[in-house]
Design brief:
InterPro entries: YtzH. By secondary structure, the protein is mainly alpha-helical. The protein contains 5 helices and no strands. It has one domain (about 5-90). About 80% of the residues lie in helices and about 0% in strands. The radius of gyration is 12 Å and the shape is globular.
Length: about 90
């Protein structure tokens, strides 16, 4: 798990942190989250707890894409956003 893995996790944390701080986002950001998570999930050596976090973020991105109001969706997930970033920090 070299730099590729670390860059992917960093990208996820950046997007989630932006959502948390700015309380806004785009469909493209949700789609980016999904692509990166799919790539990370292909790694069979991932910790099962980290996979659970990725699955939660994946569900968040899926529901965000179909949300009528992205900003409201992000606002509703503020606590989860900070929790996910903290959890990713502990696994990366």
């Amino acid at each position: 798990m070299g730099l590729h893995y670390e860059h992917q996790v960093h990208l996820l944390k950046d997007i989630l942190t932006d959502h948390q701080l700015d309380c806004c986002g785009t469909v493209a950001e949700y789609e980016q989250l999904e692509r990166v998570i799919k790539s990370l999930m292909a790694n069979t050596e991932l910790d099962s707890n980290f996979k659970n976090v990725l699955e939660d973020v994946y569900r968040y991105s899926q529901s965000g894409i179909s949300s009528k109001s992205i900003d409201s969706h992000i606002q509703e997930h503020q606590n989860s956003l900070s929790q996910w970033v903290e959890q990713m920090d502990s696994y990366s």
